[in-house]
């Protein structure tokens, strides 16, 4: 129990000492991500505008940047996805530490930064084990977008890959109809 408590305490301490950084506990390890660059944040702003434009709120959804996702992979594990689409009543699923239970998340999206392997490897497994129906990665390191859907037995099937000039259809399981530009997801709003 001492390890679990000290790991959570260490993550809290890092969060306080490193303003603007994202601190997560993934598979029992603390992961610190530096502040995002401008194009990264432009992509997220554009997503908010797109989900607003198509009426996601009227469909019973909330779309939120930087909301905590409690993970079943360890006693203190949590992630903070760049962008999430959640059920309208997500607040009823608060677990602790401003993190919410996985069952209210319909889609999570990560825009890769300098530690891109966390998003393209570690989080694929953790989000699948959490049962997140759709995981979208704007992989700026490899200049492509990946879409993982429908995890079974804690694993996603192989992803769909999308290249520049294409659009990514938001999966039906999210509850809205929307196509997202690969170029804008990778570069931000031009």
UniProtKB/TrEMBL annotation:
Domain of life: Bacteria
One family name in Pfam for this protein: Uma2
Molecular functions (GO terms): endonuclease activity
Gene3D superfamilies per UniProt: tt1808, chain A
Keyword annotations: Endonuclease, Hydrolase, Nuclease
Keyword Hydrolase: yes
Segments forming domain Putative restriction endonuclease: 15-180
InterPro entries: Nuclease_put_TT1808 (IPR012296), Restrct_endonuc-II-like (IPR011335), Uma2 (IPR008538)
Name the UniProt record assigns to this protein: Uma2 family endonuclease
